[in-house]
Amino acid sequence: MQIKSSSNKKSVLLIIEIRNKKMENYRSFSPVNLAVEALGDKWSLLILRDMIFEGKRYFRELLVSEEKIVSSTLASRLATLEKDGLIMKQADPASKQKTRYSLTQKSVDLLPFIVESIAWSLRYEPVDTRRYQPAVEIALDNDAYEQLRRQLIAGHLAG
């Protein structure tokens, strides 16, 4: 390929440079690796779980979880999830001193993955089905799944 103008050549070189920089950030571009790098730490999916299934949207709400995340780890993970485009934060409309976290389209699109993880756990692990009844129901009932998806979109992505 021959590039005729120097401005086109600079544009092509810039695109290659950007791609190379992005490649340095990942071990590989395998789809499984990319998902693991985005979600494979100990806390990310649990934070998203609490936002999706328990409606938690504030730091103090997310801090209270069965798994006992410490505040410094929660702050770090929230910052990473925001940087990765999985959540967004904004001032709470009711109290500008509070920060409210919302899911993004990118995290709502993880719902099938999370539901399949629930189904897998139900099949192979000792899930407390009574304690986690809403999540179990969503994994087993397409109507409940669709209703949750619509609620997440309306509550987090609309306006």
Task: Tell me about this structure.
It is built from nine helices and two strands. The protein is mostly helical and 159 residues long. It has one domain: Winged helix-like DNA-binding domain superfamily/Winged helix DNA-binding domain (Arc Repressor Mutant, subunit A, Orthogonal Bundle). The chain has a two-stranded antiparallel ribbon. The longest helix has 19 residues, at 6-24. The protein is globular. 14% of the residues are buried. The mean pLDDT is 88. InterPro entries: HTH_HxlR (IPR002577), WH-like_DNA-bd_sf (IPR036388), WH_DNA-bd_sf (IPR036390). Residues 30-129 form the HTH hxlR-type domain. This is Transcriptional regulator.
- Calculate Rg over CA atoms: 20 Å
Termini Cα gap: 46 Å
Second-tier CATH architecture: Orthogonal Bundle
- The CATH superfamily is Winged helix-like DNA-binding domain superfamily/Winged helix DNA-binding domain
- The CATH topology assignment is Arc Repressor Mutant, subunit A
Largest sheet: 2 strands, antiparallel
Counted by DSSP, the helix tally is 9
Shape: globular
Strand adjacency order, main sheet: 1-2
Keywords: DNA-binding, Transcription, Transcription regulation
Domain HTH hxlR-type: 30-129
GO molecular function, one term: DNA binding
Organism: Mucilaginibacter celer
Keywords:
about 160 residues; about 60% helix; Arc Repressor Mutant, subunit A; mainly alpha; two-stranded antiparallel ribbon; single chain
